Amino acid sequence: MSIDIARNVAVVRERIARACERVGRKPEEITLIAVSKTVDIARIAQAIAAGIEHFGENYYQEAREKIPCIQAPVHWHFIGHLQRNKVRGVVPLFEWIHTVDDEELAQEINRRAQAAGKRQRVLIEVNIAREPQKFGVLPEEALSLAECIATLPNVQLEGFMGMAPLVENAEQARPYFAELRRLFEQLPEAHRVHLSMGMTQDYEVAIEEGATMVRIGTAIFGPRA
User: What is the pTM of this model?
Assistant: First the structure.
């Protein structure tokens, strides 16, 4: 079965616009990140042709093969769990890292960013649902981690990222997004730039609760093989 990526992108953008309208926001406030893990270059090119400018990758080994093949001026987001021994490769490839969850990782990113001559844009991953199988700093530790990261000269902290638990009804995710938004609002203004939350199953609720970035894979590229 062929996937009409351009149509899927149009549908997602329309749903983003409707979610914004419901809460008095503008669609331009939302950065749509197409999650392209396991997606081949040809389909990424179709998404670019449909107007997608931001892509999220989960695995360094996969991304380092694909990213150099994409000549279009798009923005790359690392959205998977990041091990310290992969930072050296990730920093030169990605404009954003969404998954910083401890001080040692942040310090390693700072070192590698300095070596690369850049200031790395990052988000702190918060385990907002306190799920033991997921990564991320616990909510009560997020603001102190933010204070530590704010002192690193080659790291630019821009906010928080989080995931709601997998639920049957998107409305069940709302309390988690609302809690992350409340935590986000406690950051100093300079670091209160982006709130990355919401995926295919719940992005409209996330937008209603304040997301500025949504990470959409299945709704754009179809079910993963």
Answer: 0.96
Count of structural domains within the chain: 1
Residue 167: how many other CB atoms lie within 10 Å: 15
- The average pLDDT across 109-116 equals 98
Confirm whether 225 is domain-assigned.
no
What's the N-to-C CA distance of the chain in angstroms? 12
Range of the domain at 142: 5-220
State how far the Cα of 205 lies from the Cα of 172, in Å rounded to an integer.
Answer: 9
pLDDT surpasses 90 at 225: no
How big is the chain by its Cα radius of gyration, in Å? 17
Q: Which helix (H) or strand (E) holds 52?
A: none
pLDDT score at 92: 97
Contact present, 155 and 122 (Cβ < 8 Å):
yes
